[in-house]
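Review this:
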Amino acid sequence: MKSKQIVIIGGGIVGLATAHELLRRKPGTAVTVLEKEPRDRVHFSEPLGVLVRRLG
């Protein structure tokens, strides 16, 4: 069996949801999420950011 290695650029909601779904569908796949921010909850994807600013 070949091992699969996937790199996801961006640790926002879309990147993390994609990583989660890939691991759910293909357990054992090597998934790496790269994020430029030094900590979580610093940056939002544009659609989410708009929603957060409107509701916040």
In short: The helical segments are 13-25, 46-55. The chain has a mean pLDDT of 77. Strands lie at 5-9, 30-34. The chain has one domain: 5-55.
